[in-house]
Write a structure and sequence with these properties.
Elements lengths: L6 E7 L3 H8 L3 H22 L6 E6 L4 E6 L1 H8 L4 E6 L5
Antiparallel strand pairs: 1-3, 1-4, 2-3
Helix pairs in contact: 1-2
């Protein structure tokens, strides 16, 4: 059984043609649309997979389709099984 202590994890998503289309638009409006799209997509995944109030998303990554979230090991395992998720990795500080 996993730990219930929250730690920072990075979640990276599978290929998404809408993300690629929005990322190709280098205009100010395109950047805003990409930010809005990713935030809604990532928030929706978390809401559909984890219980409300049990996680804290810290930011969405625009350069890649991913986000950082404070969750437990059990929650990380649940996200690994979620549709559309490619990789879930715990943040590791380098000495």
């Amino acid at each position: 059984m996993g730990s219930r202590e929250s730690e920072m994890y990075f979640v990276f998503m599978n290929y998404d043609p809408e993300y690629e289309r929005l990322r190709a638009d280098r205009s100010k409006r395109g950047a805003y649309e990409l930010d809005s799209y990713l935030s809604a997509k990532h928030d929706g995944l978390l809401a559909a997979t984890l219980n409300p109030g049990t996680y804290k998303k810290t930011f969405s990554l625009v350069i890649v389709d991913g986000f950082a979230v404070e969750i437990s090991e059990d929650q990380a395992n649940a996200l690994r099984s979620a549709k559309g998720v490619r990789v879930v990795e715990k943040n590791q500080e380098l000495a």
